[in-house]
Amino acid sequence: MKPVNYVLVVVLWIASVPALFSQTSIQPDSTCAGNSGEIYKVTLTSGSSYDWSVTGTGHTLHSTNTNEITIDWSATAGIDTVKIVETDLNGCPGDMVKLAVVRIPVPIANAGSDDTICSSGSLTIAGANAQNYESLVWSTSGDGIFTDGNTLTPVYTPGTGDIATGSVDLTLTANPNTPCATPATDVMRLVLIPAVVVNAGTDDALCWDETVFMDDPSVSNSSTYTWTTSGDGAFDDINLLNVTYNPGDTDNSSGSVTLTLTATGNKHCPDISDTKVLTIRPKPVTGPILHF
Question: Do 220 and 245 belong to one domain?
């Protein structure tokens, strides 16, 4: 009797499952450091589950195990990777999909320390600094004018309103790099010391060898002043505002003399001077007496 040969046939049945396709994203992505509520998602496949993760520390993930996740990013600038693995309804995992995300640093602005100048002068800002910005702009709470107002070292010239108020706030704004949306601002206060104002009075004329009393000079924002002369006359007191001047021989022979009133400033405002010109009429010359 011939032996019987048996053939064992094994049929392998592979269930049809949904294909797990990688999701495409622009690489790398970017966000602003510290942003919250950033949404990332992949196409939803019915019956699939999703395992999300993020490299690095300081991030908070919300709504895991769905095709969509919300991330609160760390406030520290840097780059980390969002990862997802999709598992289908049959428990088969797909390839890990990754998305690099760059956290752009937020801008920082420092307008510098408060400062003080004379109201007649201008301020060159030297202590300002900024970081992580796309552009800079200075603005004023008053009516002055910036020169080079898009730099860290602008020059500010106070306006009449600034001077009347006695101070003005200067604001530095650092506009952010994309995708950050919130600019950084900082304020410095500029105090304006009233400038010294001097008026030596109206020019005058007098007769030869005549003494003159200064009745119309004025000084503002200073309590110390001094008179000087271009000639050889004498003042009764050079530190009086309403002073008396007695022309000298050289003054009389020259026919004029210039008197200068100088008011003392302070550490912010300089000394200021103004002049008054005295015209001296010559002494009349009488001819000889004739007898007819």
Answer: yes
Cα separation, 122 vs 172, whole angstroms: 17
Task: Kindly report whether the peptide bond that precedes residue 93 is cis, defined as omega within 30 degrees of 0.
Answer: no
* Domain extent at residue 125: 108-193
Q: Choose one of 160, 193, 226: the last residue of a domain.
A: 193
The answer to whether residue 7 sits within a structural domain is no
Query: How many Cβ atoms from other residues are within 10 Å of residue 152's Cβ?
Result: 19
The pTM (predicted TM-score) of the whole model is 0.78
Where among 159, 193, 227 does a domain terminate?
A: 193
Residue 251 phi, psi dihedral angles, 5° rounding = -60, -50
Question: How many domains does the chain contain in total?
Answer: 3
Total Cβ atoms within 10 A of residue 17: 12
The CATH number of the domain holding residue 54 is 2.60.40.10
Burial class (CB in 10 A: 0-12, 13-18, 19+), 190: buried
Distance CA 160, CA 121 (A): 12
Instruction: Establish if 48 belongs to a structural domain.
Output: yes
**In angstroms, rounded to a whole number, what is the distance separating the alpha carbons of residues 154 and 158?**
13
**d(Cα 215, Cα 223) in Å, to the nearest integer?**
17
Q: What is the mean pLDDT of each run of 10 residues along the chain (292 residues)?
A: 39 33 62 96 95 95 91 96 95 96 97 97 97 98 98 98 98 97 98 97 94 96 96 97 96 96 95 97 89 89
> Does 9 map to a domain?
no
Q: Taking the CA atoms of the chain, what radius of gyration do you get in angstroms?
A: 43
Q: Looking at the domain assignment, is residue 10 inside a domain? A: no
Q: Are 29 and 61 in contact (CB under 8 A)?
A: no
Q: In angstroms, rounded to a whole number, what is the distance separating the alpha carbons of residues 73 and 39?
A: 11
Q: Is the peptide bond prior to 105 cis by the omega test (within 30 degrees of 0)?
A: no
Instruction: Give, for 251, the enclosing helix (H) or strand (E).
Output: helix 249-254
